[in-house]
Design goal:
By secondary structure, this protein is α+β, with helices and mostly antiparallel strands. About 20% of the residues lie in helices and about 30% in strands. A hairpin with a 7-residue loop joins strand 1 and strand 2. Helix 1 crosses helix 6.
Length: about 350
Amino acid sequence: MQGHPHDPLIPSRKSLISTGIDYEREGFQTGVLRVPFSHDRSAYGHIPVPVAMLKHGEGPTVLLTGGNHGDEYEGPVALMKLLQRMPSMRIRGRLIVIPALNFPAFLNGSRTSPIDRGNLNRMFPGDRNGSITAMIAHYVDTELFPRADVVLDLHAGGASFNHMPTLLAALPRDPSRHAEYMKLVHAFAAPHTMVMDLLGEDRTYGAAAERHGTLFLCGEFGGYGSCNVDGLAIVEEGLRRVLHVAGLTHDDTPPPRHDTRVIAVNGAQHYLFAPRHGVFEPCFTLGQEVAAGHLAGRLFDPYTPWEAPRELHFGGSGMVVCARTFAGVEPGDCIALLASPAPLA
């Protein structure tokens, strides 16, 4: 027998994740998102994901998150430092901060969750009744995005990539909001602002935020699974300027901004993938300008080291903005990413 959608026997689609944070209450609050986790050693347990919120009066709601991938540290460190200042900040509106959104992955220092191997940035809109990572995505999509006016999700290359400090941006579908969005882009003032092409991937945090009509910014600020000093400084200064321009902070004087160079990833030609297993010798450096056909590197077969390596060439022209840190590759691994100058607005 099929039930009616409003049948009380059918569970609500409301998230199973709960929190002691009252998103409507004035003042500063800290707490956790309680992600239900029943397992062999804890039948009624949960995973606590730390969250903080500051609310004063009427104004925009800004959501700041890091640790979408657990081996990317510039965002979480910048947000943990921001948490130290939040109790004394004077704002108009609401600031919600989650330094490590995929908390199990963050504690494990891995891109994906050690519990379910979930890649949070490929799980949206999530699933209320799904895995731990899917439940986190569902909570963000149903509880946080609908409340937010501006969202920033802070990334880096993680253990497997090194990424030039780059803000990722995409103009809102609503043309009337383009000017408002570009103010945020210029306020963050990263050295580069990149329009990303994920080759049709629409399960990301950013794709979900944009479906809600939220002004969304992302960014990549380092790599090697470390906390890059220069990348961290860019994030901290950029956040201060964005919060100010968004109208949240009013008594802060952010550091002066710098011009940003707009670049874009233009389809598959800007990706370099490994065609087979091997050890890769790069013939490029991060930030280098390359041309289509330029030698990208050599792929050695460790099982037949006496054979000549296979040469790999770039399919398009541009600047190397992201490079693989692991020399060992398998078929389909991304080795490098290019981008070339392009207008954003």
